[in-house]
Amino acid sequence: MNAPSHRGSAISFRNVSYEVRNGSELIRNLNLEIETGETVVLVGRSGSGKTTTLKLINHLLVASSGDIEVDGKPLRDWDVIRLRRSIGYVIQEVGLFPHFDVAHNIGLVPQIEGWSAERIRARVEEMLQLVGLDPQVASRYPHELSGGQRQRVGVARALAADPPILLMDEPFAALDPITRAELQREFLALQQRLRKTVVFVSHDLREALLLASRVGLMDDGRLLALLTPKQFLQSQHPLVSAYVAAFGAANGKGELL
Amino acid sequence: MNVWQFMLENRDQVFELTLEHLWLVGVSTLLAVLIGIPLGILITRQPLLSKPVLGGANIIQTIPSLALFGFLLPAPWIGERADRLAILALTLYALLPLIRNTYTGIRGVDPAVVEAGRGMGLTERQLLWQVQLPLSLSVIIAGIRVAAVISVGLATIAAAIGAGGLGEFIFRGLAMVNNQLILAGAIPAAFLAIAADVILGRLEKRLAPR
Fold first, then answer.
1. Is the CB of residue B78 less than 8 Å from the CB of residue B72?
2. 3 state SS for B144-195
């Protein structure tokens, strides 16, 4: 896959830092342009700032300095609620509402956006189909679902109001390997059709190389490299090649062994 | 004459005092719900207030009930009638379980669920009404249950200041060294406490999140 040309940036970070109250910097001078329709996967060790970067985008965290733009508009000019409703958010723990059935979970944002009941029902069914779930699960509660089904509902919920941007924080990390591979394949197929702008956090380089149009390596609050999967494997950057080596050597053809 | 015969022969008075007792407990628990739940919600949002509010409610709880009735006696309007006084004191005692359970209930909601809700663009108000309150309802009901059961017992002491209720029998029995009279107040009070416990316990179970 080639790096997308520099047309409209969906998300841009300029000299963004984020520090917590005790003064330690979790994000240091981050510069990042994410193009419309691409999938950027952030990798790096725990505490490197991947999740923090995601939460800066949907304003769950507020940058200490620098500028973040979403859809060409600085975050401070956005109404936070509008911003979040135009960004789908999927997290590892899924966070389904345990007291709502699946249909209510998926239809909640459309409902508070004032859609008609008929339109919500149709949308819920469409979303369930999109993520490969039987329409019958609509009336089930989250505790009656398997881990894989729950995460599918999480994705369906994030997509329900058709947001142009999707943030995914290790969405498949808690699943068994077979289910994870299944969801990764489905994500790719889904992304081919929907062309959302996706920022995806992963601990797993294989997952990153499979899903990404570009892979970003983060370390200690800095973005060290942002490269296509092929470039990433061939990179001479010492920290990038060290990270690749940690997952097993590359074979020189841009594939992990 | 045993206690059952006594209660049967004086059933009108037993009934009347039970109603008075229920009135004291019901009104004070209701007031405590109306004050305690909003306060509990408030201190989840203003963490700086949580210590003074919970501490204050805790301190009230440590005041002996007879002393609290005495403290409130000089209060205007309240001090004019014994039942007002009793209701105020019972309300103050019921506040702690309500504030504390509302607070811990809301704080105990799975943080991932709250984060998902916030991340998908729920306003704080929508988050409260659609997610946090429904998911902490059983814990809040447990607080009401504790408050109601404590109130049933405490309300017997309200008779000492002339507020009526089943304490009348108990205090009269104490003064006359008459065990039957004491039991005629204590047994219905115990039944009220058990009934409140069972009914609210059922409600709590039904509302527990799956």
1. yes
2. HHHHHHHHHHHHHHHHHHCCCCCHHHHHHHHHHCCHHHHHHHHHHHHHHHHH
Nearest CA in chain B to A81: B121
CB contact under 8 A, B126 and A112: yes
Chain-chain contact of B119 with A60 (C-beta, under 8 angstroms):
yes
Q: Number of residue pairs across A and B with CB atoms under 8 Å?
A: 64
Q: How far lies B140's CA from each of A59, A122, A166, B31, B137, in Å?
A: 31, 36, 36, 15, 5
Flag if B121 and A93 touch (Cβ within 8 Å): no
Tens-digit pLDDT profile for residues B150-191:
999 999 999 988 889 999 999 999 999 999 999 999 999 999
Residue in chain B nearest A96 by alpha carbon: B113
Query: Which residue reads 């991932």 in tokens?
Result: B112
Amino acid at position A95, single letter: G
- By DSSP bridging, strand A165-169 and strand A197-201 are parallel
Q: Would you say residue A7 has pLDDT above 90?
A: no
Name the token pair of A173: 């990390």
| Span B13-53, pLDDT tens digits | 999 999 999 999 999 999 999 999 999 999 999 999 999 99
